[in-house]
Amino acid sequence: MDNDQLPSAIESQIQSLLDKRVEAVRELVRRSQNVTNAEANLTAARSEHRKAWMQAIQRGWTEAELRKVGLSRPTAARTRRTSKTDSGQSETSNPEH
């Protein structure tokens, strides 16, 4: 390779590395959004489960009867907490994970 082609070859290699890094971040964003969506769906499902459980109790079922037929009591609402990452930055985490 002559001196005229060298800068172009180096630039091409650098661009290839940058493209791979950008694609990795795009994939990370997609996967992070999937987690956010799943957590929102789980929160909504738990809320609906609690409402349905309370409605069954209000309509005369006892907790013991509901558990006896195989239904599980709704889980308690969980709060999010903040922890420190290895880099020292705050990170919100869900204790369910």
Q: Which features would summarize this protein structure in a list?
A:
rod-shaped, two-stranded antiparallel ribbon, 97 residues, mainly alpha, 2 helices, single chain
Describe the structure in brief:
This protein is mostly helical.
Largest sheet: 2 strands, antiparallel
Q: Radius of gyration over alpha carbons?
A: 26 Å
- What oligomeric state is this? single chain
Helix content: 55-70%
How confident overall, as mean pLDDT? 86
* Strand residues, percent: 5-15%
Number of helices: 2
Task: List the domain count as a whole number.
Answer: 1
Low-confidence stretches: none
SSE succession: HHEE
Total strand segments? 2
Distance between the termini: 53 Å
Give me the side-by-side strand order of the main sheet: 1-2
Shape: rod-shaped
What structural class should be given to the helix and strand makeup?
Answer: mainly alpha
Question: In words, what does this structure look like?
Answer:
It is a single chain. This protein is mostly helical and 97 residues long. It has one domain (1-70). It contains 2 helices and 2 strands; from the N terminus they run ααββ. It has helices spanning 6-58, 63-68, and strands at 81-84, 90-93. Strands 1-2 form a two-stranded antiparallel ribbon. The chain is rod-shaped. The N and C termini lie far apart (53 Å).
